[in-house]
Amino acid sequence: MTRCGAKMSAQDSCLSLIKYLLFVFNLFFFVLGSLIFCFGIWILIDKTSFVSFVGLSFIPLQIWSKALAISGILTMGLALLGCVGALKELRCLLGLYFGVLLLLFATQITLGILISTQRMRLERRVKDIVMETIQNYHSRPEESAAEESWDYVQFQLRCCGWNSPRDWFGIPSLSSNASDVHRVPCSCYNSSATNDSAIFEKLSFPQFSRLGPQARPRHSTDLCGVPADSNIYSEGCAQNLQKWLHNNLISIVGICLGVGLLELSFMTLSIFLCRNMDQVYDRLARYR
Questions:
Q1: pLDDT score for 76
Q2: pLDDT in tens, 199-245
Q3: CA-to-CA distance for 281 and 288, rounded, in angstroms?
Q4: What's the CA gap between 88 and 83, in Å, rounded?
Q5: What does DSSP assign to residue 214?
Q6: Dihedral, CA atoms, 13, 17, 18, 19, nearest 10 degrees?
Q7: Which of 18, 78, 93, 128 could be stapled to 85 by a disulfide with Cβ–Cβ 3.0 to 4.6 Å?
Q8: Residue 160 in contact with residue 188, Cβ under 8 Å?
């Protein structure tokens, strides 16, 4: 009787440890989700400051802020399930918590398999989207989110066009009847190669405000272009994107593996606690 009681006491202590570990970890992620949600709301409220600091224009920044807010809400909701289910020892909430984590894990595995097996199709799809954005550059000023996002990509990756700067040649919005010189967007301009103040004066979009002190934000429908024979980036963004992925491959894989192992750990703890909780209590009640 004493030996059985000691065994049950050890099992009860083990389950209590697992319960509070699950609670503490989920409490941390609840706080993290709250911070992500508040950050997304902050961006929505104070867009002007983030436009000048981050370099994105209003529409892409608004999309990212909403994505952050939704991610924060989902993280908070999932962490709340784990916290309450572990602390109150509710099997229904622990089972729901396990099911949501399993669904997320399966979705990530599926996406990883699709990306690895459909890589060539994905690359072609991305190329088609980029080339369509280039061909329609500033042809519809009211629908400029994709164009402004691509300008930001060119500016950050220090590249021009998808394959090369020649992708921009012949674009109607950048062509000039008075001159045969090809023009490219100002996001292709290599500001580190020269200190030409005349060029800096043209770089006046919010996303290029870091290029020089004379830059001033104007309305997003304004068109900024520079001659293709000036100091522009010579490489296409496809090559630079491949270089970036190659240089950061270990970090990306490490983050994905870390997230997957974390999800597996939480699933294991929750299902173990859910399956053994009632059994221990029934045995304890039997020996009392």
A1: 93
A2: 544 444 444 444 443 333 334 445 677 787 778 888 899 988 888 88
A3: 11
A4: 8
A5: T
A6: 100
A7: 93
A8: yes
The encoded tokens of residue 104 equal: 């997320």
150 and 133 Cβ atoms separated by less than 8 Å = yes
The answer to whether 96 touches 81, Cβ cutoff 8 Å, is yes
pLDDT tens digits for range 149-205: 888 888 888 899 999 888 898 788 777 655 667 788 888 888 776 655 455 444 444
Assigned token pair, 148: 């402004």
Name the CA radius of gyration of the chain, rounded: 27
Mean pLDDT of 30-46: 85
Separation of alpha carbons 288 and 280, rounded Å? 12
Beta strand 225-227 with 183-185: parallel, antiparallel or unpaired?
A: antiparallel
Local structure of residue 272 (DSSP, 8 states): H
Quote the tokens at residue 199: 């060029």
Q: Which helix (H) or strand (E) holds 184?
A: strand 183-185
Q: Is the pTM of this model over 0.70?
A: no
How far from chain centre, in Å, is Cα 103? 20
Q: Find where tokens 């059994």 sit.
A: 279
Q: Fill in the DSSP letter of residue 266.
A: H
